[in-house]
Write a structure and sequence with these properties.
210 residues, alpha+beta, Glutaredoxin, Glutathione S-transferase Yfyf (Class Pi), Chain A, domain 2, four-stranded mixed beta sheet
């Protein structure tokens, strides 16, 4: 039997979970390479040749010779490679791309900073309060959109849902309370019940919080 053509370098993190979930949803065979960030493996030379910025995840596709980093780019690549997880309808397709970019540019970076200030460096200075306010604004935007949409792109589950769930999963683990955002909370529970999502957040091992 031939070995899988895809190699995923990752750790248990929101950005890593996006790709393990996508691969599990797509049923693609892949080899998992566990990059242990707490042991500094992301800063070693062999990993930096794959991503000079030293961040996970990285996907290597031996079939095409393509190496990718940045989770949004990897999700787009997998959707293009398989013709799945990105709607065929033009309007819904661009809706999925919009919410994927919203996540990458307007949500994930804010949540990352909020996790830092709330969990690892608790404080109540102006900078920390700004990130708390901005993440609440992002939650409001998502909640308002999901009031009229079953999934982020509309009626079809897509890479936008996978990307957004990665960080919302960590938000739930570290006890960020977004229960007052009822539509976002209902969407979160809906995504979390998918078998592929449950498998994806267990790889390389489940996140357990700080």
């Amino acid at each position: 039997m031939n070995s899988p053509q895809l190699e995923l370098y990752t750790d248990s993190s929101p950005n890593g979970f996006k790709i393990t979930i996508a691969l599990e949803e797509l049923g693609l065979p892949y080899t998992l390479r566990h990059v242990r960030i707490d042991q500094g493996e992301h800063r070693r030379g062999e990993f930096l040749t794959l991503n000079p910025h030293g961040r996970i995840p990285v996907l290597v596709d031996a079939e095409t010779g393509v190496t990718l980093f940045e989770s949004a780019a990897i999700l787009m690549y997998l959707a293009e490679k398989t013709g799945r997880l990105l709607p065929g309808d033009r309007v819904m397709r661009w809706s999925a791309i919009i919410w994927l970019v919203f996540h990458a540019s307007s949500m994930a970076p804010l949540l990352g900073q909020r996790v830092h200030y709330d969990i690892f460096d608790p404080c109540h200075n102006d900078v920390a309060e700004r990130f708390r306010r901005l993440t609440e604004e992002a939650f409001t935007t998502l909640d308002n959109h999901l009031k009229d949409n079953f999934w982020l792109a509309g009626p079809e589950y897509s890479i936008a849902d996978i990307a957004t769930f990665g960080w919302m999963h960590i938000a739930r683990i570290v006890d960020f309370d977004f229960s007052r955002f009822s539509h976002l909370s209902t969407w979160y529970e809906r995504v979390s019940q998918r078998p592929a999502v449950q498998r994806g957040i267990s790889l390389p091992h489940p996140a357990t919080g700080p």
